[in-house]
């Protein structure tokens, strides 16, 4: 199945055994909570990007801390690690009264990892995202016929 190939390839982005453990522990509420991760994560990443744009070191800390915890809940360790770095460097810079310009590449990477992580979660939880196109003979495969998905 395609999903297993995707999981093998994306194992550096998501710890799938941990993801499945969380899915089992959260039970029927899993999809709802994963939706919160998507919404809250998007807001956190946007707030971090805005804080960098505004040169507001203090505003980096809470969204990075929030994203770190939520990412770890679902096994998205690389995302959590980048968020943790942003949080820690920002906290240090608050104490020294300077802006953390060195975090610009991390903030760019945070957006990329967040989008990739959400894409992987979608593929793992939405059967329409993982369904392969039917095999055809003599014509190009398409699932865009009227009344078909």
Structure description:
The structure is a single chain. The chain is mainly α. It has a single domain, classed as HPT domain (Four Helix Bundle (Hemerythrin (Met), subunit A), Up-down Bundle). The protein is built from 7 helices and no strands.
Query: Can you say what the CATH homologous superfamily is?
Result: HPT domain
Q: Give the proportion of residues in helices.
A: over 70%
Distance between the termini: 19 Å
Q: How is the CATH topology named?
A: Four Helix Bundle (Hemerythrin (Met), subunit A)
Number of helices: 7
User: What is the averaged pLDDT score?
Assistant: 86
The arrangement of helices and strands along the chain is HHHHHHH
Specify the overall morphology. Answer: elongated
Going by CATH, the architecture would be: Up-down Bundle
Please report which band the strand proportion falls in: under 5%, 5-15%, 15-25%, 25-35%, 35-45% or over 45%.
under 5%
Radius of gyration, in Å, reads 19 Å
Report a brief summary of the structure.
The chain has a single domain (10-123), classed as Four Helix Bundle (Hemerythrin (Met), subunit A). The protein is 71% helix and 0% strand.
Strand and helix map with partners:
Blueprint: H1 2-9, H2 16-26, H3 30-54, H4 58-73, H5 77-96, H6 104-125, H7 127-130
Helix pairs in contact: 3-4, 3-6, 4-5, 5-6
């Amino acid at each position: 199945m395609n999903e297993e190939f995707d999981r093998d390839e994306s194992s550096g982005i998501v710890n799938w055994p941990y993801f499945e453990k969380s899915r089992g522990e959260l039970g029927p509420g899993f999809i709802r909570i994963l939706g919160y991760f998507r919404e809250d994560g998007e807001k956190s990443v946007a707030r971090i990007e805005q804080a960098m744009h505004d040169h507001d070191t203090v505003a980096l800390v809470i969204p990075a801390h929030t994203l770190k915890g939520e990412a770890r809940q679902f096994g998205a360790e690389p995302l959590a690690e980048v968020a943790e770095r942003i949080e820690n460097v920002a906290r240090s810079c608050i104490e020294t009264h300077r802006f953390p310009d060195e975090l610009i590449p991390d903030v760019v990477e945070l957006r990329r990892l967040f989008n990739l992580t959400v894409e992987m979660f979608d593929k793992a939880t939405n059967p329409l995202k993982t369904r392969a196109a039917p095999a055809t003979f003599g014509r190009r495969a398409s699932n865009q016929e009227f009344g078909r998905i």
